[in-house]
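User: I'll paste a sequence; please echo it back and then give the predicted structure.

Assistant: Echoing your sequence first, then the prediction.
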Amino acid sequence: DHPGFVEPFIEGTAAGLADVRAQLTAAGTPDAPVHILFATHSIPTRDAEAAGRSEGEPRDFDEGSAYVAQHLATGAAVISRVEAESGLTAPWSLVYQSRSGAPHVPWLEPDINDAITDLAGQGVKGIVIVPLGFVSDHMEVVWDLDTEAMETCRSLGLAATRVPTPGAHRKFVNGLVDLISERTSANNISDRPAMTGLGPWYDVCRPGCCANFRGGKPTIAGADSTVGTGHDAYPAGSAGAAGGEGTL
């Protein structure tokens, strides 16, 4: 939820809403219902339920997992700022894409194409797709969203647009510099900017965090110095240190 990641989506979502409204106006339906879909990569439900928890520092999320909670919190932050700064708003929801793996294994839903179809059945006439789970355009954005999701919208007669990913946006690039500075400076978590109530996340995952249900693999790399700074430093070679002995 660093501002450098969130603010490009705020700009893009406001522009996307304006674009869809312009499409609807041109079609003679300026006041038709519009819906915003925040899209992210689906993952197995079991993995989602384990996300963000660790044995030594349990934390409950109302949404069931850190993965879902972080996306919902960031989406809410985007909508709040868009409405405050542009006066534009619309109902929104979190959807998933790029499901793979065995069909019998439950993954997070709804799929974006199913959600678009359902919304059209409810009378929605415009869709703004925000690729909230991605930092740059790649195949899963260009194919799953620009090709498949937009084709679903066209087949249903919906006005639609896809908001850009942060990519090389100046604020995002500056944010990456800020994150590197945070990582190398001994600052406190309270000094780090964040745009949601979940706050800045850990530099280094806690031991036992985000359980790997497929089984771990031993690592052989080591570290010569303390890894992490400020609020979550780990001694080199500890289970929580990057490159320390443990599992991947």
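The beta strands are 34-41, 92-97, 126-130, 159-162. The chain is about 40% helix and 10% strand.
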